Amino acid sequence: MPRFSIIVPTHGVAGRLGQALDSVLAQSFGDLELIPVCDTAGSPAADVAAGHAERDSRVVPVHAPPSEGLAGARNAGVRAATGTYLLFLDGDDQLLPGALAALDALLTDTGPVDVLPFEHERVPWWEGEPTFPAAPLLAGAPDGAFAPSRAPHLTGVRLPAWSTAWRRAFVTEHELAFPPGHFTDVGWGGRAVLHAERLAVLRRVLVRHRARRQGDRLRLPGPHHADLLDQAERVLDRAAALALPAERSAPLFDQLFAAVLKTAAHPRRLPAGRRAFFHRASALYRRHRPAGHRLPGGSLGVQHRLLATGSYEAFAALRDTRRAAARAAAALPRPRGLRTRLYYGLQLRRPLDPDLAVYCAYWGRGYACNPAAIHAKARELAPHLRGVFLVEADQAHTVPDGVEYAVLGTHRAWELLARATYLVNNANFAEGVVKRPGSVHLQTQHGTPLKTMGVDQSTYPVVAAATGSFTKLLGRVDRWDYNLSSNPHSTRVWERAFPGSYEHLEYGYPRNDVYVTAGADDVARIRAELGVPEGARAVLYAPTHRDHHTGFEPGLDLEAFCEAAGEDVVVLLRAHYFYDRGGHGGGRARRVTRVIDVSAHRSSEDVCLAADALITDYSSIMFDYANLDRPIVVHADDWDVYRETRGVCFDLTAAPPGRVTRTPEELARVFRDGTYADAESAALRAAFRERFCPFDDGRAAERVVRRVLLGEPPEALPPVIPLAERAPAPAAATLVRS
Predict the structure, then answer these.
(1) Most C-beta atoms within 10 A of its C-beta, which of 151, 187, 459, 721?
(2) The pLDDT of residue 450 is above 80
(3) Contact at 8 Å (CB) between 695 and 720?
(4) Which residue pairs from 28-31 have beta carbons closer than 8 angstroms and sit at least 24 positions apart in sequence?
């Protein structure tokens, strides 16, 4: 009886099979049998195995049909084995020199053990440093032989079968076999360790696992990922039948569901059937969750909660948001490379330029929003200041003539950021930007908050993942000297959501000045530029971003709405700025029948001036548009979902700026019968304006420039014009149909 039986499935690995078999036969410890498991005689792998068998009597090939898969091949090898201990090796991996001698030496010291895990190294297919995935798992195990209760984290489900030695008599006694399907190692290892009475570990790398260029088969997309639930269920059912104590069942449960959640969180692995996978996993979770089970911390704990409650929509939203956040974070500018970091550090040693102001809007999306309005007013009131706008490279062409700009990420941009005395942004500058003594940072924000913001998002898992580290967020807040507010509601929210030592400026939003200063000629000109037909009712449709969606979804059949709302209705479609580079226009308004896509138009203020009415869901554009005192309809078809997944600061449906509709038919009807602009709608809008438009009187930009850039005291600034005394820009069309 040989000491070791090494079983090597060979399907699809003929090219490297010879190296694998040679690595076994070259071992200094020779008391072994080598069992290559081949598909059929005459196959490429079978020919390799046969050649080795002719040269070495220890090679004993066996056959298993390909239809039985990896599990069938290994089971065939187990049935043919005669050794005291079983080892498995993939056909493109290698057993490292001295591996069997090290195993034999440990087993001589410990005596018989049922299961003996050891370390392995994972080598990139082409180049790169190897990794040692098993090392952390084995590091905390006791020395010598021990009972499983002394190392409950060794559950058998986190190691491949080829990273463990198995006592053959133990396998036979408990009738262990590799279960069919994919992820067979999970089912085999998990059930085997449940029955084991004596374990030992060898903290030495014995196997070199060569990563495939095309990736791990188990990580490729396809329906086979549902097999993971089959394997988990087999293991959990066996654990329940054995009445496993809590100290062992909890680690087993956590490790199994860590693998399940990892699959569920990768939509590319499950091109279809993700919902069914999640709900089946949820049922399995509830059925087998150990009594007194403690949830893990962090994002994984949030996923556990969602799985326990079966909240697929929230889980999918969290998953998609995290992926979107990762993509967005990768796009943010930061000093990359040693040369850039050194250059930026050198510029930080130079003195601040007292006449330099740097502006940025929407992470470099162009000349827009409050920073643009402040920049324009500064050119008028503070001409001695040099203002430079930072934009992404593909947005440079959108910067108006005469406006100096720099491209984010370039050395010039980092020099400007290092030396500017004034830094103005409606989002946040890159995390690598240093707040220098004497510099002034103005955060202008870019909307009145309806949804939760900042640290308030921490209790909403869907958006908390997108925010990332709240510690880093607050580090960016600490750079602010001033934070702009458009109304008292915003001031309260900012104070709670972005706690810091900055000064609140309740001056209104500079970008909204135009709603008071523009005249009828401006409105007519903009409508002509956008292609709004004369005499048409232009209805702006501006839905907000959904954190639980991965792309822009209009939500309404806009052509059908136009037909149902009235023959004079045209729609101006304005997608959220997150999608302004999608298929919504190439920088100009694009008309398709009665829908004019204005998503790529540079100025949302222009679009609002052109519109006779607004339809939105929960977009902050409603707070800005209310300054025009024109009808607003809130189409809240998914309010409950949005409120639960995104979180809101107040109940919009209880205090709306106008009519609230729930269905497309209801929305079309209020435009068809004119109730979207009736007295009741006007009364709702008036109350809304009192609450959210107290400071936007057309002079917000002037107040900001005088206070922040010119250093004038608050008492010297222009007072706010009362709401009743303002004259908003006139609408172009008759709003109420007779």
Answers:
(1) 187
(2) yes
(3) yes
(4) 28/97, 28/98, 28/100, 28/101, 29/3, 29/4, 29/100, 29/101, 29/103, 29/104, 30/58, 31/2, 31/3, 31/4, 31/104
Listed in sequence order, the residues at least 6 apart from 439 whose beta carbon sits closer than 8 Å to its beta carbon are 352, 420, 421, 422, 423
The whole-number average pLDDT for the span 132-159 is 93
Q: Which amino acid is at 334?
A: R
Q: What is the pLDDT of residues 254-298, one digit of tens each?
A: 999 989 988 888 777 887 888 888 899 999 999 999 988 888 877
Q: Which residue has the tokens 């056959």?
A: 63
d(CA 620, CA 637): 17
Which string of DSSP letters, residue by residue, matches 355-378? Answer: EEEEEE-GGGT-S-HHHHHHHHHH
Residue 398 CA, chain-centre distance (Å), reads 29
CB 277, CB 270: distance < 8 Å: yes
User: Which residue from 457, 451, 464 is spatially nearest to 650, judged by alpha carbons?
Assistant: 451
Rounded CA-CA distance 414/389 in Å is: 12
Q: Report the alpha-carbon distance of residue 123 to residue 121 in Å, rounded.
A: 6
Over residues 655-687, the pLDDT tens digits come to 999 999 999 999 999 999 999 999 999 999 999
Contact 422, 403 (CB under 8 A): no
Tokens 């440079």 map to which residue? 396
pTM score: 0.56
Structure tokens at 238: 């066996």
- CA 77/CA 35 separation, integer angstroms: 6
Do 633 and 615 touch, CB atoms closer than 8 A? yes
Q: Are 390 and 372 in contact (CB under 8 A)?
A: no
Integer Cα distance of 27 and 15 in angstroms: 21
The β-bridge relationship of strands 590-592 and 595-597 is antiparallel
Alpha carbon 78 to its chain centroid, in Å, reads: 44
Q: What are phi and psi of 356, to 5 degrees?
A: -110, 125
Structure tokens at 215: 């990736």
Secondary structure, 3-state, 478-505: CCCCEEEECCHHHHHHHHHHCCCCCEEE
Q: How far apart are CA 29 and CA 57, in angstroms?
A: 15
Rounded to whole angstroms, the Cα distance separating 582 from 485 reads 31
Q: Average model confidence (pLDDT) for the chain?
A: 89
pLDDT of 587 above 70: no
**Closest by alpha carbon to 366, among 336, 328, 396?**
396
Concatenated DSSP letters for 310-344?
T-HHHHHHHHHHHHHHHHHHHHS----SHHHHHHH
How many angstroms separate the most distant Cα atoms in the chain?
102
- What is the DSSP code string of 581-616? TSSS-SSS-EEETTEEE-TT-S-HHHHHHH-SEEEE
Point out which residues pair with 4 in neighbouring strands: 32, 85
Sign of CA dihedral 578, 650, 483, 347: negative
Distances (CA, A) of 259 to 118, 192, 255, 472, 637: 21, 18, 7, 29, 36
Residue 550: pLDDT above 60? no
